[in-house]
Design goal:
The complex is a heterodimer of chains A (435) and B (90).
Chain A (H helix, E strand, L loop, with lengths): L1 H9 L1 H22 L7 H10 L5 H9 L3 H4 L8 H16 L1 H8 L2 H31 L17 H28 L4 H25 L1 H23 L1 E8 L1 E4 L2 E4 L2 E7 L6 H19 L9 H11 L4 H22 L2 H10 L2 E2 L7 H36 L8 H25 L8
Antiparallel strand pairs in A: 1-4, 1-5, 2-3
Helix pairs in contact in A: 2-9, 4-12, 6-7, 6-8, 6-12, 7-8, 8-9, 9-10, 10-11, 10-17, 11-16, 11-17, 12-13, 12-14, 14-16, 15-16, 16-17
Chain B lengths: L1 H20 L2 H17 L1 E2 L3 H37 L7
The chains are: A mainly alpha (435), B mainly alpha (90).
Chain lengths: 435, 90
């Protein structure tokens, strides 16, 4: 197996892609440690060392940005604005007919939608940077820290920080798209993967030191089980048989073969989990911004932070589950278009045995997909809940800032990326990684 | 293969006809039954495949974590050295 990894590096085409991706990852991590202009790095470290950054809310967002948020670095916002923006644009397609039109237009419309997503990302980045800076100025960001994070807080400095952070968001967005385009894997999910992976060893180490070996091994075992489960679901597929009609092209017979359309039980991959987690971190974030520096927080703020920051509450789990199911359906309906598939089949003389070409075919595909996705969505929701519940019962919840979602995202993205590398290898008639 | 596809396609229109007569719960039960019927046709990975994939994913994730940890260690120390103008301990 290791030789397969080596072979991946020996293929010139693939090596370039892998190295490119690694290069982007290096830049991404580098930016995490460069403080924004006007921020006193020594003071930030001093505040972090005080350890007043309690409260799951910070950790939640901090994890998504790979620790950059609390460092108040130039990449403080991470990939979050981009994720939020793409969720919003996808959701808006249902509400705004123009978006739907653009989507149906094909390539060109898609480009337009991407453009909107980018604008929205910048706007969201601006908004979040402003809130972050105002939190940092009032000293709320890093608990009650005695030393100021921004020693010289004139309007100019504050504006400079906001602009820098927004630019950082733009840069991250670009890097993500570059990975998708020229590297391996999906850029957005890969960058989240990196962010979460950066916090993982620390969390594991904390569990080991605070909870002992038994719990530590338990967590590792749990991770293994989740990996196996995710792999199992990802690799299960419903195969719809397709028969291709024989036809004469010149003097040769073409087609006449029978294949199948593979319909994965979970066609949406990890995207629903990422979306659901991103959505769920929003209320806690809003509550955080509404907490006054001194005195009692309003009642709703307390309620929100109790429900959403403490991930063991049943309401949180229920909403998490529901969101995952919803996003799975949603994403599948966006990415798989039965009419398009049936049209294509008709064009090349293919048909599903027993079903007429054209509308009945697309109806049949829709029928299968809606049923298979139901199972897939429920499965994904349950798998997402397993680590959450298990970590709570193991008592290791406090150490895992993101509970189950972190494990799930890591495994899901890992599998997706590995499969892409494998596909690339197989293109060159090698055996591939996965054999 | 042909047979299963044909039978399920025949099953569908009759199911649609029935759903008009069925009550709310009846329709839900029908749907669940259809979901189970579709699930039975799902091809699951073999044990060998499963083990292999799991291992490869684990190796990949661990490699990535090691890379990121090394990067973080290097950049973190460099940042402390550069920006706070002193040795890492403070």
């Amino acid at each position: 197996m290791l030789s397969a990894f080596a072979r991946a590096f020996r293929t010139p085409d693939l090596r370039r892609k892998l190295l490119f991706t690694l290069g982007i990852i290096v830049i991404y991590r580098l930016g995490t440690f460069i403080p924004s202009p006007g921020v006193d790095y020594g003071n930030v470290q001093q505040c972090l060392a005080l350890g007043n950054t309690t409260g799951g809310v910070y950790e939640l967002v901090n994890l998504f940005s790979g620790g950059a948020l609390l460092q108040v670095s130039i990449f403080a916002l991470g990939i979050m604005p981009y994720i939020t923006a793409s969720i919003i644009t996808q959701l808006l397609r249902v509400v705004i007919p123009r978006f739907e039109e653009l989507h149906k237009e094909g390539q060109q419309g898609q480009a337009k939608l991407t453009q909107y997503t980018r604008y929205l990302t910048i706007a969201l980045g601006l908004l979040q940077a402003t809130t972050l800076v105002s939190l940092a100025r009032s000293g709320q960001l890093l608990g009650q820290c005695p030393v100021p994070i921004i020693p010289n807080d004139t309007i100019i400095t504050v504006l400079l920080i906001i602009i820098t952070m927004t630019a950082g968001t733009g840069l991250i967005m670009w890097m993500g798209e570059l990975i998708t385009e020229k590297g391996v894997g999906n850029g957005m999910s890969l960058l989240i993967f990196i962010s979460i992976a950066s916090g993982f060893p620390t969390s594991l180490g904390q569990i080991l030191t605070t909870q002992g070996w038994t719990i530590f091994l338990g967590v590792l075992l749990l991770g293994l089980v989740v990996v196996a489960l995710v792999v199992f679901v990802e690799q299960s597929q419903r195969r719809i048989p397709v028969q291709y009609a024989k036809r004469m092209v010149g003097r040769r017979t073409m087609g006449g073969s029978s294949t199948y359309i593979p319909i994965k039980v979970n066609m949406a991959g990890v995207i629903p989990v990422i979306f659901a987690s991103a959505m769920l971190s929003l209320p806690a974030l809003i509550a955080q911004f509404n907490t006054p520096a001194q005195g009692e927080a309003p009642e709703w703020v307390q309620w929100v932070s109790n429900t959403f920051a403490a991930r063991e509450s049943p309401l949180y789990m229920a909403i998490y589950f529901a969101l995952i199911v919803f996003f799975t359906y949603f994403y599948v309906s966006i990415t798989f278009n039965p009419e398009e598939v049936s049209d294509n089949m008709k064009k090349y003389g293919g048909f599903i045995p027993g079903i007429r070409a054209g509308r009945p075919t697309s109806e049949y595909l829709q029928y299968v997909i809606s049923r298979i996705t139901t199972a897939g969505a429920l499965y994904l929701g349950v798998i997402a809940l397993i680590p959450l519940i298990a970590l709570v019962t193991l008592g290791a919840n406090a150490n895992f800032p993101f509970g189950g979602a972190a494990i799930l995202i890591i495994v899901g993205v890992g599998l997706e990326t590995v499969k892409q590398i494998d596909a690339q290898l197989q293109q060159r008639h090698y055996e591939g990684l996965l054999r | 293969m042909t047979e299963t596809a044909a039978s399920s396609s025949k099953g569908r229109p009759s199911g649609d006809k029935n759903s008009g007569k069925r009550g709310f719960f009846g329709r839900i039960i029908l749907f669940i039954r259809q979901v189970i019927a579709e699930l039975k046709k799902v091809v699951t990975p073999t044990r060998k495949e499963l083990v292999n994939y799991t291992l490869v994913v684990l190796v990949f994730v661990i490699i990535m974590m090691i890379i990121v940890t090394i990067l973080d260690f290097a950049f973190g120390n460099a940042a402390i050295w550069l920006f706070s103008g002193g040795p890492p301990d403070q």
